[in-house]
Amino acid sequence: MTIKGLKNHPYIPNSVLEVQEEMLREIGLNSLEELHEEIPENLKLTKNLKLPKPITSEFQLKRHVEGLLNKNIDCREYLNFLGAGCYDHYVPAICDEINSRAEFLTAYGGEPYEDHGRFQALFEFQSLMCELLEMEVVNVPTFDFTQAAATAIRMASRATERFQVIVPKSMDREKFLGIKNYCSPQISFIEVEYNLKNGQIDLKDLESKLSDKVAAVYFENPTFFGVLEEKGREVSDLAHKFGVLSLVYVDPSTLGVLEPPVRYGADIVCGDAQTLGVHMNYGGGQCGFMATMNNPRLINEFPSRIFGVAPTEVEGEYGFGDVAYERTSFALREGGKEYVGTQAAIWGITAAVYLSLMGPKGMKEIGQTILQKSQYAVEEISKISKVKGSRFHGCYFKEFVVDFNETGKTVEEINKALLKRGIFGGRDLSKDYEDLGQCGLYCVTEVTSKEDIDRLVDSLKEILA
Predict the structure, then answer these.
(1) Sign of CA dihedral 365, 366, 372, 373
(2) Residue 461: Cβ within 10 Å count
(3) Mean of the pLDDT values across residues 144-170?
(4) Which of 70, 146, 157, 351 could be stapled to 215 by a disulfide with Cβ–Cβ 3.0 to 4.6 Å?
């Protein structure tokens, strides 16, 4: 826009009227308003915003912003039993120490001449993730778990030249809408039912929906409900019969105690590394990854950067740089298969620090601890009258669905009462999963103590009495 009386605005690029007119002529338009003519008039702002007077003092501005931030209540003040994609794991101090180094402040990519160790750090992330997943290729992190899943689906579609994808009806509805939006309009989705008793994929329904038009079957382990998908091999085998790729979304914190997806037939694995040493950051701190075996058909469909190691002219010295750079949008520009911009590389470096610190033994201990605490929480909650600690039969990890249907109270009412007692209750599933009724998705991690769980149980008893 051009402000009256000011042709060249100091903070708005291309605000010079002559530059604007030249750009408009180039694209065949007469005014900037024509760029937005598809937006309905009732959605356009036709009056000035009621903005407060500017704060010109740095001290006053800092005080104002801190006052706003102090209105938030975080998990250091309240007990937290929320999960659903963002998890309260312990973050070792060294993770923050390393990722705050000046060399990593612009952790995304860059070029070799100003690398300062970032390429190697990201290569180490890829290597450690490959070891954890038992796969051979992992990308530099993308924005979050939703984009990682959507990108994996697009990769499968391009590799198979098919445009239908099967997904579980039990997946997070917000995540599903994000994936659907990211993959439209080329890819259509078919939802497969889940078993209301154990929460796992209905294999008969899956088989009835498979065809030679389907690119991939996408499923999650654990599921959104925290249930372990015990028939992952059967799902992958059914998919492969039709030439369909098996895509598995996995929580990496499970892999110290559970088999990695490649062992039950996964062709592409995706997930979020937020559980590996990254703070929750009010829902931020997400770090999506995709992984495959060394299959050129799939590797060439990775849109994001992959770093490799190679010897230099100096004997015994190694350098780190892009692998197959020509397949990325950085090289192809408008011909790119998928646009990839500034990514969450800083969280990939953080995850590498975390994995190198924990090692196989540490990951196993965390997994065992979470399993034990999950079981304890479900057993204790189940002792409350008219409450089922787990809506589904079978095994679960970290998260579980608590059934309040027989209590006469809604999850919303229960969560409001818990909040008054300094507790964040589980996510309310009643709106997105009507067939479950009044159920809440609860979460415990290694930082949840026995005393925390006992306090939750005592509070629920009071509320439901």
Answers:
(1) positive
(2) 14
(3) 97
(4) 157
